[in-house]
Amino acid sequence: MHSHDTSAEVLTQAIVRYAVDRVRIDPPLDGPRTVVELKAMAGRTITEGGIGGLEALRVFADVLAPSCISVDHPRFLSFVPAAPTEAAVLFDLVVGASSIYAGSWLEGGGAVFAENEALRWIADLVGMPAEAGGVFVRGGTAGNLSALIAARHRWRERAAGAHDRTRGLIVASKGAHSSVASAARAMDADVVMVAADAEGRLQVDSLRECIEGLDSIDSARLFAMVATCGTTNAGVIDPLEAVAEVAGELGIWFHVDGAYGGAGLVAPSVRDRYRGIEHADSFIVDPHKWLFAPFDCCALLYRDPLQARRAHTQHAEYLDVLQHDDEWNPSDFAHHLSRRARGLPFWFSLATYGTAAYRDAVEQSLKVAHEGADRIAAAEHLELVMRPELSVVLFRRRGWTPDEYQRWSDRLLADGVGFVVPTSWNGETVLRLCVVNPRTTIDDIQLIIDSLA
């Protein structure tokens, strides 16, 4: 099973050819099939004797892959798409083939060094100090949870044991990602949601009123404040400078969730909207969203990584050999131990194309989104909900019911035209386009507009 014989060589060539073809051709949109359909088409794939690599590859290529929507299709405009570069995808094959354990410097120092180079670039975009650092984790949910664990640890550490059994409290906006509430549940903490303005940004006046309204017990429980730069549903940025000021006055941890929108830091055209982000104690951005890396990849950064290390380092007899102050063990900076070198494809792509290419690609997405919003505003049958701040466009089809939105969305996918699903805005069903793929053109947006007539 582990030997490389003639049949393994044939399989190797077939898999590499499939992978190369997949990144070089325009992907079909494809779409889901039912369990019944897949059972009938795929047959029994797990057997005592095996079906052979070529047959397994055929089943995947002919049946399973076409049953998955291509997230990198230029008209995949739902949720937050992905648009990994060819270099990143191809190097992901190398990462898998290299069998690198990237949880410790001892075992994966070369990989960790490269990952840290990519993290440093992001830290510089944020404006974090030279000593800042972190780790690549699975996604924004894991990143937010790990950052908030570190925040709570600092709060308890400063209290010298007084809060070791106190249930902590987090303040966030109603526009914050659902993973903040999920992290609080996992940590057995509470979240106070502060009112957002008409476009979904945290309201600073409401934040101050919320803080002033806490009684002495709740005030003592407060350990973190979360702001968002690029909300998932509307793509707006909280007033980071003002939130940082409030967090600084209270002496609590300031975390910024930039899972989607943090990539906008690359673009000079919108960089000024992130003022205040440099004060963050922790920050996340998902390169698999708008920084052109394959799944799964979230960059988690700490202003003071030693604080995060104290919160996350696992202690066991067999791990003691890893604990040297001068070594950077990625397992010490999040709620994980084992990890693949998931930041390497991102590093390889950055090293291959250069940061200027990333700047230009993000600016291209912004240009298409904003020009698309102009065309939506000009269409008689459509209406913008708001002007886009980043690359999310919210709009409505005049006169449509929720059922009409859903039927249109289903038909668009079934016809292989695009993938756009309805969302909700203040209780109203509307449509949402998220543009992060530089191969998405204004003609793609116009096709969507015309299909709504």
Describe the secondary structure blueprint for this structure:
Blueprint: H1 6-24, H2 35-42, H3 53-64, H4 86-98, H5 105-126, E1 133-137, H6 140-158, E2 169-173, H7 178-187, E3 190-194, H8 204-212, H9 216-221, E4 222-228, H10 240-250, E5 253-257, E6 282-285, H11 287-290, E7 298-302, H12 305-312, H13 344-353, H14 355-378, E8 382-384, E9 392-397, H15 402-414, E10 422-425, E11 428-434, H16 442-451
Parallel strand pairs: 2-3, 2-4, 4-5, 5-6
Antiparallel strand pairs: 1-7, 6-7, 8-9, 9-11, 10-11
Description:
- Helix content is 44%, strand content 12%.
- It contains 16 helices and eleven strands.
- The strands form two sheets. A seven-stranded mixed beta sheet has the order 1-7-6-5-4-2-3, sandwiched between helices.
- Helix 5 packs across helix 13 (344-353), helix 6 (140-158) crosses helix 12 (305-312) and helix 14 runs parallel beside helix 16 (442-451).
- It starts with 5 loop residues before the first helix and ends with a helix.
- The mean pLDDT is 96.
Highlighted features:
4-stranded antiparallel sheet, 44% helix, alpha/beta, 12% strand, 453 residues, 7-stranded mixed sheet, 11 strands
In short:
The protein has 453 residues and is an alpha/beta fold. It has 16 helices and eleven strands.
